[in-house]
Design a protein that fits this description.
By secondary structure, the chain is of the alpha+beta class. It has one domain. Helix content is 51%, strand content 23%. The chain contains 1 helix and 3 strands. It has a 3-stranded antiparallel sheet with strand order 1-2-3, covered by helices on one side. The longest helix is centred in the middle third of the chain and has 42 residues.
Length: 82
């Protein structure tokens, strides 16, 4: 939702679990720039977190394979990395 507050344009994004985000700009173009910048940052963060998760999964798999090769049985129950 985009609103006009005094001399600013304000975009309000309500993410239920994440709270409310507000972006402000003197005009619609600067407001769009704020939103684009936020989207770029979010995309970078998601890609970095995805790479970290993949690395953790690969490391866990390697550790399990080494234990099995060494004759050590895997733990009874491991929490999945989702």
């Amino acid at each position: 939702m985009i609103q006009r507050e005094s001399d600013l344009y304000v975009a309000i994004i309500d993410i239920a679990e994440g709270g409310i985000q507000k972006f402000r700009g003197a005009d619609l173009e600067s407001l769009c720039e704020q939103l684009i910048h936020a989207q770029e940052n979010a995309t970078r963060l998601i890609r970095r977190m995805d790479a970290e998760l993949k690395a953790l999964r690969a490391r866990r798999t390697l550790i399990i394979r080494r234990k099995i090769a060494a004759g050590i049985p895997p733990a009874h129950k491991q929490e999945p990395l989702t």
